[in-house]
Amino acid sequence: MSRGVLALVSAVIALAVGLWLGGHPADLPGPIRDTFVQEDRALRAEIIDSIEDNFYKPVKESKLDDASLKGIVESLDDPYSSYLTAKEARQFEEDVSGHFEGVGMNVEQDRRGLKVLRVFDGSPAQDASIHAGDLILAVDGRPIAGVNSEVSTNRIKGPAGTTVELRVFTPGERADRTVKVKRERIEVPLTRARLTERDGHKIGVVELLAFSQGAHAALARDIKRLRRRGADAIVLDLRGNPGGLLLEGVAVSSLFIEDGRIVSVRGRHRAERVHNAEGDAILPKDVPMVVLVDGGSASASEIVTGALRDRGRATVVGTHTFGKGLVQEVENLSNGGELKLTTAHYYLPDGETIITGKGIKPQVRAKDDPKTDRDEALPVALDTVARKLG
């Protein structure tokens, strides 16, 4: 091989290696990696300095820093991963604590903005005639299509007594509308319970509205009260429940399953972690159960639904669930913010993972019509569980 050809081949190899290592800086030797990182930081600082010096209006450096960090996470194209500023992180912690300052509704991400899953009784959202099924298209004049759901909901929240402007679209209407809603301190109800009769049997119906801290304890109290009042069977209503804490999902499942697997978690760089039933179940195996779900039942709701189905503890009634078989972990950052990152899939007891967008298929189909004041799905659930009683 001539010297010129050898030089050309060497150059091509060097270029290929350089390109690969440039995209995989963690694999570089320490001193070289540090140089790459320093150059990257210098370039970032150069851009920020140029914006601060030359942009036509003042911009806070902290805003640019936050936007840069958000952009890194948004480049993952994962709707469940996000960078939260210190302020947003505090609001996120309020979400899982069961109380916050806002307008009082549960929502899920939609390609057009936020879809309303549930409006709390007596809330500002209810007073503003916002209903389940409505779409929130903009907050204070800023469209939220494509914006991470946690960022969007944080824009809606704010100090009690302040006002937020929402652009709302009701499916079936010709045009959207703009409403001004006064924020209040919202105490999120974890459960709602009642006793009803079907074919001569007393049946307890318990709605679990979120998997925030204490959800399993609140659910246990309600079920024990219903049993004392003579409930022969239980309908667990998870419709519109967007999920929450993984461990609360395991604890709720453990109220009905004595032992064995509830869910397992596996990630790209993580060994399988199995969550088994914890403690003693509060409901005897001979007490029939139905789990009622819909397209708003997601995450921890699907963990509970899948576990009760796979372990033969309950019949699933309703429509396909949301389809969120991914696990997020939250890392506290040095600036007071948080990194919420999708790290793994979860797997139901029979080995199934929840396919994104498909969810869990019900064993008995029952669909509620949002255009009516009636609840068309609950009677199907009651009939299903009553048949088990004979």
Descriptive overview:
- With 390 residues, this protein is α+β, with helices and mostly antiparallel strands.
- It has 3 domains: 9-45, no CATH class; 99-187, PDZ domain (Pdz3 Domain); 191-389, 2-enoyl-CoA Hydratase, Chain A, domain 1 (Alpha-Beta Complex), CATH 3.90.226.
- 34% of the residues lie in helices and 27% in strands.
- The chain is built from 10 helices and 19 strands.
- The chain has helices at residues 3-23, 30-54, 61-74, 86-97, 124-127, 149-156, 215-228, 246-254, 300-310, 377-389, and strands at 82-84, 99-102, 105-110, 113-119, 135-139, 142-143, 163-169, 177-182, 184-187, 191-198, 201-208, 233-237, 261-267, 270-276, 289-293, 315-318, 326-332, 338-347, 364-365.
- Strands 3, 4, 5, 6, 7 and 8 form a 6-stranded antiparallel beta sheet that branches. Strands 10-11-12-15-16-19 form a 6-stranded mixed beta sheet, sandwiched between helices.
- α7 runs parallel beside α8 (246-254) and α8 (246-254) runs parallel beside α9.
